[in-house]
């Protein structure tokens, strides 16, 4: 349709199909964080991020939604896991970035044992009486992720596990000491004798780790279901670990396997080079 006809149609009050936008509102990056005012006697009146313990039979996401509803009064939906902290099998802390999906914030008249109230606070104007300053880095990480994600969205996978353990994608690449040409990089993986990725109980390393220099890149996935207490309330962290020196000779129940599949080799190298992996912090 010619410009003349388009203008004439508008002048006559007739419509034109919208095929593109030339000006759109500027998208502002989120800069507010949900905080709750503590109700417990030892920290009553102080402000903190919503948090809590998982209950028997809960999944990680169910625990997240339940705690937010109890402490802040709103419904939420997780966007991604943001960080994992661990102190061994008895203390694993999952931090989520989430968004509000419904209900209203808890007001002072609704205070109970879970919290006194909830409020949205700008990052640059947080309340002075924060319970612990450890949440500041988490708040900044959440805002940074909203502004430009540095790893892909990651949600827990609903798979049963009865212990706290790690599955290692333990890799070595030739660029770590053999070749500077990334086009020729070879990749090796540590596998069990029946060609399985090693799975070890938390804080237990296979003996082939002895004297090796390793770099824990981060978490590739989290497996948990929690449906049957005592049988499925463990968690498996699929962890990418990069070896800094050439693999040693085979021993024990493990062996090194060279990845010859071009697509798989490229995917592993891309993960290593981009570093786009969920961070884990050992405390």
From TrEMBL:
InterPro entries linked: NUDIX_hydrolase-like_dom_sf (IPR015797), NUDIX_hydrolase_dom (IPR000086)
Segments forming domain Nudix hydrolase: 13-143
Highest taxon of the lineage: Eukaryota
Pfam families reported for this sequence: NUDIX (PF00293)
Gene3D superfamilies per UniProt: Nucleoside Triphosphate Pyrophosphohydrolase (3.90.79.10)
Signal peptide: none
MF GO annotations: 8-oxo-dGDP phosphatase activity; 8-oxo-GDP phosphatase activity
Classification via PROSITE patterns: NUDIX
SUPFAM superfamilies in the record: Nudix
PANTHER family: 8-OXO-DGDP PHOSPHATASE NUDT18, MUTT/NUDIX HYDROLASE
Protein name, as recorded: Nudix hydrolase domain-containing protein
Top-level taxonomy: Eukaryota, Metazoa, Chordata, Craniata, Vertebrata
